[in-house]
Specification:
It comes from Wolfiporia cocos (strain MD-104). The chain is an all-alpha fold. The chain is built from two helices and no strands. It has a domain of about 45 residues.
Length: about 100
């Protein structure tokens, strides 16, 4: 009898890639500002995503640029009909302004 390890270890472990549509969590908050802008837009529009699609595209672009998800074509993500600026806009600075009450 063997104690201390599961029997599957002796057969070898074979990692598998995540299912399509799942991707690693943003542990370091690299795209948190983009995500927050998108979620705020959804709240303001009663969860209607149509007016927020450009923010969704910015968020996914941030994730792809930082290796948090695999690069994919916009048409596969349902966002091919949106205009893209050559320079991706950075999210606004969220530091509080002086003199606010």
């Amino acid at each position: 009898m063997s104690f201390g390890r599961p029997p599957s270890i002796s057969q070898g472990f074979k990692p598998t890639p995540p299912d399509r549509g799942s991707f690693p969590l943003d542990h370091y908050g690299e795209c948190k500002d983009y995500m927050q802008l998108y979620l705020d837009c959804l709240r303001k529009n009663a969860s209607n995503s149509t007016p927020c699609r450009h923010l969704n595209r910015d968020y996914l672009d941030c994730r792809m640029n930082r290796g948090l998800m695999g690069r994919d074509e916009w048409k596969n993500l349902g966002l091919s009909n949106l205009q893209v600026d050559s320079d991706q806009a950075e999210p606004p600075d969220k530091t509080p302004t002086a003199g606010s009450s």
